[in-house]
Every structure is written in C-alpha cells, then in structure tokens.
Design brief:
The chain is mostly helical. Helix content is about 75%, strand content about 0%.
C-alpha cells in the first residue's frame, strides 16, 4: 500500500464512522415519531445520551485495559467485573430482600458500585505495582479465580432464594438497552467527563505503555502511577456502563477488535475514537433497528454478546494457530 494511502486510511475510517454514528443518532431520534416533537425529542434524547455514554464507556475502558495488560483478548468483564456486579445484586436480594433492588436509591446504588469496582481493581491489579514485574499469566489467573469465586457465591445464594425473589433478581442481571435508568444520566455524564479529562492528560503515554513495562520505564513513563490512574479510570467507566444497562461481557472486545481491524494500526489517538464510534453505531443503530423493524422481538444485548463471543473465540483460535 502506498505511504500516502496508509496515512490517510485512519482519517477516512474515522470520517465514515462519524457519518454513520450521526446517521444512527438521527434515525433513532426521528423514525416512527408521533405526537408532540418536544416530548419525543426529550424522551429519546435522554435514551440516546444514555446509549452514547454506555458505548463510550465500554469502548474506552476495553481499549485501555488491553493496553495495560498487553493482551487483546482481555476485557474488564472477563476479569471479573461483571461477576462482582452480579454478586452485589444477589447479596442485596438475599440479605435485604428482592424488593430492595426496586426501591433502593439509584444514586446510592450507583455510588456503591463505583466504590466496589475501584476497590476490586486495586486488589486485582496490585501485582502490577509490586517491586518485581509479575507475569501476565498470574494476573489473568487472579482475575479468573476472583470471577469464579464471585459467580459461585452468587449461584449459591440464588439457589436459596424463593422463586419470586429469584425472578426479580434475574431481571436486574441481564443487560437491557431498551430500559435505561435515565435518572443516573447526570451523575454518569459527570463521572465520564472527569474520567475523560484525566485520560486526556495521560494520553501521550498510552502508545508508550503498549510497548511494554520495560520500554515504558526506559522511555521515561512513571509506570506505576500511570497504570494506577488508568485502572481507576477503567473501573469508573465500567461502573457507569454497568449501572446504566447491566453487565456486558463481550461487547467491548467486539468494538475494540473492529477498530484495530479497520484502522490497520494501533495508535490510541485513532483507536479510541474509532472504537467509541463503532460502539455508538452498534448500540444506537442496533436499538433503532430492533425497535422500528423487529418491534422488540429480540434483545440487542443477546445479539451483541453473541457476536462478541464469536470474536473472542476467533481471537483465541488465531492465537493458538500462531
């Protein structure tokens, strides 16, 4: 490929993705609209903002998590974050009653989830801040073990619940893009904005971190402090997306892999916006098609998780083949 075309490809990809994202947003806001436009635009606008926040949070957190771990088949969800969310919801239903899931203050629940995610990330990734460099295999093993522990405890408590409480709990454990808690939009948007500002300041170090710990240190990056800050930001972004729609396992892997494949290179100033735009197109466009074409005959979360799972298996197979 000529050098000029190689340099222009990322810009072209970002322009096309931006156009598709805007088209998806316009279609979501206008298709099938009836009655007062002031009501329709306000109602759909809140849902659009929620979907955009979820898409941005999942995409950015996944790309940066893969950068820190130097592995493109890992996501925060695979490492146990979703299992922690399920455990918290199950514990509330088990000890306080399933009705607490419906009557609890959403802002209080959101704040608790953020604190737990941050605390878990600090515990899980403490291996990165020790004096000696730890193996990535140990990091993955610790995450998987914690995930299995959380799921086992959740399953045990769920088996002891009465059928009615279990049904209420199940409704809160599956991602739903159609019924977003818009009361959390203000807090979620504020947290996402603060995280974005923090990541903007850390932006120049992302490509250096992707080279590995030793290279990053040799090139002058304060490795421990930088990785520590990135992991906290990832935890907050995961909390935002989980609190708004529920746990999502493979969607981040899907959009991050597509972004790398479309761009053909891994510069974060291009990969991060590309992944976020792909996520917006997938969620907003997918939800529009689901509502206006299929009349809610299926769930968008099922589709994106299925496609993300296929990408995960494909990456594992390709890695084994190499």
């Amino acid at each position: 490929m000529p050098r000029s075309l190689a340099l222009g490809r990322p810009a072209l990809v970002l322009v096309v993705l931006s156009v598709l994202a805007v088209a998806s947003a316009v279609a979501f806001m206008t298709l099938g609209a009836r009655g007062s436009w002031s009501f329709v635009l306000a109602f759909r606008g809140r849902r659009l903002l929620a979907l955009a926040l979820v898409a941005y949070s999942i995409a950015v957190s996944t790309v940066l998590f893969q950068t820190v771990t130097q592995n493109r088949i890992l996501t925060p969800s695979i490492m146990g974050f979703d299992a922690l969310y399920v455990l918290v919801q199950t514990a509330i239903a088990f000890f306080l009653g399933a009705h607490m899931l419906a009557v609890a203050d959403p802002h209080l629940s959101f704040g608790g989830e953020v604190l737990l995610m941050v605390a878990f990330s600090l515990l899980l990734f403490r291996w990165l801040f020790l004096g000696e460099e730890r193996s990535l295999h140990l990091l993955v093993l610790v995450g998987i073990v914690f995930g299995i522990l959380f799921r086992s405890l959740s399953t045990f408590m769920q088996r002891l619940l009465d059928p009615n409480s279990f049904q209420v709990l199940q409704d809160s454990l599956f991602a739903s893009f159609g019924t977003v808690d818009t009361t959390l939009l203000g807090v979620a948007a504020a947290l996402t904005g603060l995280v974005t500002l923090a990541l903007w300041r850390l932006g120049p170090s992302f490509d250096v971190l992707a080279l590995g710990r030793s290279h990053a240190i040799n090139l002058g990056v304060e490795y421990r402090r930088t990785v520590f800050a990135i992991l906290i930001c990832v935890s907050v972004l995961v909390s935002v997306s989980t609190a708004l729609v529920g746990p999502i396992t493979f969607f981040g892997l899907l959009v991050a892999s597509l972004a790398h494949a479309l761009l053909g290179r891994s510069r974060h100033r291009e990969v991060l916006p590309a992944a976020a735009l792909i996520a917006v197109i997938s969620l907003v466009g997918g939800q529009t098609v689901l509502e206006r074409v299929f009349a809610f005959d299926t769930a968008l979360s099922v589709i994106v998780e299925f496609l993300g799972g296929l990408v995960f298996l494909l990456l594992i197979v390709r890695g084994a083949a190499r």
